[in-house]
Write a structure and sequence with these properties.
The protein is α/β, with parallel strands linked by helices. 40% of the residues lie in helices and 21% in strands. The strands form 3 sheets. A 6-stranded mixed sheet has the order 7-6-5-8-9-10, with helices on both faces. It has a two-stranded antiparallel sheet with strand order 1-4. Helix 1 runs antiparallel to helix 2. 42% of the residues are buried.
């Protein structure tokens, strides 16, 4: 679910302009999962553009205050959510922690880095939601530490049914600044893609695992 339509459209424009999102239906990317995809999203690039970085920080902060009210702590999901999470925590004037994908194999072997006390409320910051597995793993780690997770805010969301269902099952509300549907509309309006590309991109969205199984990546 997006936070606000105008925010979603503006951010989609930014992501396309700085090439944080690339659309290549005719030359798909290979994801780590093995899926072939006509889209690649790298929100780390937004950190190199102060205007975009500031927009994301401000809009995530607004979303948190409007949807969840001010939490005790902000938590970023490693690695993409760390920098943006820290910026949001600074904007709101509250503590920041981050959640590792896996515990360190030495020292304290922490999953949650930073100080969060049992009973404190937390909002999680993520850069991108695809299947939702890594995001919800971070939520689980925070809950196991005793934190009360109020919800999650991401920069971008593919809107896969799998993620929607998993967040629902875990009783973790979430919002994104922009999503795949808005992105395609803006890409078409601004001539980043044509109608044939749009059809391929929507086809992938409907069945990402099976899409492109007969294609060969050059």
């Amino acid at each position: 679910m997006i936070f606000k339509k105008d925010t979603a459209a503006q951010l989609a424009d930014f992501l396309l302009q700085i090439k944080a999102i690339k659309l290549q239906p005719s030359k798909p990317f290979l994801w780590a999962s093995g899926w072939k995809s006509p889209i690649y999203c790298d929100n780390r690039l937004t950190l190199s553009y102060p205007k975009v970085r500031t927009f994301i920080r401000q809009e995530i902060s607004k979303a948190i205050l409007e949807k969840f009210e001010k939490p005790d702590v902000i938590a970023g999901v490693a690695t993409g959510g760390i920098a943006h999470g820290a910026l949001v925590a600074q904007e709101l004037g509250i503590p920041f922690v981050y959640v590792r994908a896996a515990a360190k194999g030495h020292g304290m072997e922490n999953l949650v880095e930073g100080k969060v006390d049992s009973g404190q409320t937390v909002v999680v910051i993520e850069d991108l939601i695809s299947t939702g597995k890594s995001s919800l793993k971070a939520v689980q780690s925070l809950r196991e530490s005793g934190a009360i997770v109020k919800g999650l805010v991401s920069i971008f969301d593919y809107g896969f049914d799998q993620a929607v269902q998993q967040f629902k099952e875990e009783k973790c509300p979430y919002f994104s600044l922009s999503n795949y549907e808005v992105l395609l509309d803006r890409a078409l309006d601004n001539k980043y893609i044509g109608k044939e590309d749009e059809e391929q991109l929507r086809s992938w969205r409907n069945n990402p695992e099976a899409w492109g199984t007969t294609l060969k990546i050059a």
